[in-house]
Specification:
globular
């Protein structure tokens, strides 16, 4: 679903990547597919900075936010990893918010 400017989350990641030396925009399709196939394992991989994409820590955080946006927007179901690692997830999503404000505003 687009935001008020008509941009999808992927387009916002592309915009954030420009000029900030991020490579996550090259992998958003695969990342989304991984979250759709196995949300818990994919989330755990990004929380542990153990993804196959060679992302920086902030890019792992962006991937987490991207996964949650799609998960919350399309398919909400119980995932025990969310309960188990809630505080860490919350911090990582806040890190993305602060990064975006710092870099784009």
């Amino acid at each position: 679903m687009p935001n008020s400017d008509g941009k999808l989350f992927k387009a916002l990641i592309d915009e954030l990547s420009q000029g900030n030396s991020l490579i996550i925009h090259n992998n958003t399709g695969d990342i989304n597919g991984n979250f759709n196939c196995d949300f818990s394992t994919t989330l755990g991989d990004f929380l542990d900075s153990n993804s196959k994409y060679g992302l920086t820590p902030i890019e792992d955080d962006i991937a987490i936010a991207y996964g949650f946006r799609n998960f919350g927007g399309h398919k909400i179901e119980d995932q025990s990893i969310i309960h188990q690692r809630f505080d860490e997830i919350l911090q990582r999503v806040f890190d993305v918010l602060f990064y975006v404000v710092e870099k784009l505003y």
